[in-house]
Amino acid sequence: MNVTMANQGLFAWLLRRLQKRPVFDKNKLYVSELLSILLQMDEANRRQLGEVDGIDILLQQLSVYKRHDPGSQEEIELMLNLFDCLCSSLMLPENKDRFLKGEGIQLMNLMLREKHMSRDSALRVLDYTLCPVSQLMDQNTNELPSHQKSTINTVDPEAVVIANCSKFIEILGLRTIFPLFMHCPREHALRSTSSGSKTKVKVISGPTSAEMEEHVINIISALLRHSPPETFKPRVLAKFVENDHEKVDRLIELHLKYLDIVKATNSKVEIMRRNEKKWIGYTREEVETELMLKRLEGGLLPLQVLDVIILDVCVNGAPTILERVLHLLKMRSISVNSVLDTVQEYVNNLGEESTTGTTLSEKTRVTDLLKKFKELLTS
């Protein structure tokens, strides 16, 4: 039903309503909520939004907040809804390309520099735009008109991510993201108070400090993975040498932090595994899948990303980086196998039967990093 509504011009009307002055009114808030719901529903809506210049319009509406905070609690909610719309849209490679051409990366970088309320959500947007998304088509794609189907898959997902990472480095985004890597920002307090006989406080969900830390880790991982090795990747690697390898120190600090979190999560998962009553009606494969999701949500995913970063900078960066990593691990009585085992599990979980080029490319890349890292240890 939502696809039919979009095809009948609903998106065009919603976007026109968003552009009307003033910057905020309650109707704009309702429009942003409806738009956010539609974009989360399926891929067809995200594609439709891009084709009616929705990415540019969302960027125009959000540009107001690069140097100014919203003027009311309801306007905060409007801003967050617009960011949600943008993130949902960026799941499509075509929209990542439109985001790049609409100077969205420049806008997000400005928001990070200005340190206003929009900064927190700008990190999430950059995470979406710099990281690849597997091109799995919704069944709703079949409902698109033939003239819209002709635009599907016209953008190479890998190429557009490489272009986005290159642009971020070109506009000096490394100067913005690495200070946030060294000191994760605290979330802004976002609360809405409603009037009446009783005052109710509604917490408006912005990114938490932990979520922002994970976004920063993902962004740096994406820059290492997708930046062209002849031009921009050396600039990323150089960051891990400057100021007496302070970024390497931070990498190991975060590795130890998430290693402790994962150990605690693993203990809880083992208790869950032994609770036979909980798994009545589940197959063994379903049980293991559910428990793996718990582990990923409980810190394993950021630990895996961090440890792949460690391997990448050791293999491709200056020799002093590996020396620093081994020294720091030894000082804390931590075996280098804690890194290798985590990365090996990550590779194993990518699967043997994957058919997506993105996943196969990542598996090949990380397997190669593992091999070269082990060779460095024995040389």
Fold and architecture overview:
Keywords: Coiled coil, Nucleus, Phosphoprotein, Repeat. The protein has helices spanning 2-7, 10-19, 26-41, 43-51, 54-62, 73-89, 93-101, 104-114, 118-130, 146-149, 157-170, 174-182, 209-226, 233-238, 242-274, 284-316, 319-331, 337-349, 357-378; strands at 191-194, 200-203. By secondary structure, it is mainly alpha-helical. Strands 1-2 form a two-stranded antiparallel sheet. Helix 2 runs antiparallel to helix 3, helix 3 crosses helix 4 (43-51) and helix 15 crosses helix 17 (319-331). Mean pLDDT is 87; it is low at 135-151 and 191-199.
Which helices and strands occur, and which strands form pairs?
Blueprint: H1 2-7, H2 10-19, H3 26-41, H4 43-51, H5 54-62, H6 73-89, H7 93-101, H8 104-114, H9 118-130, H10 146-149, H11 157-170, H12 174-182, E1 191-194, E2 200-203, H13 209-226, H14 233-238, H15 242-274, H16 284-316, H17 319-331, H18 337-349, H19 357-378
Antiparallel strand pairs: 1-2
Helix pairs in contact: 2-3, 2-5, 3-4, 3-6, 5-6, 6-9, 7-11, 8-9, 9-13, 12-13, 13-16, 15-16, 15-17, 16-17, 16-18, 16-19, 18-19
Subcellular location: Nucleus
Domain Beta-catenin-like protein 1 N-terminal: 5-343
Keywords: Coiled coil, Nucleus, Phosphoprotein, Repeat
Overview features:
379 residues; mainly alpha; Leucine-rich Repeat Variant; two-stranded antiparallel ribbon; 19 helices; Beta-catenin-like protein 1 N-terminal domain-containing protein; repeat; nucleus; CTNNBL1; coiled coil
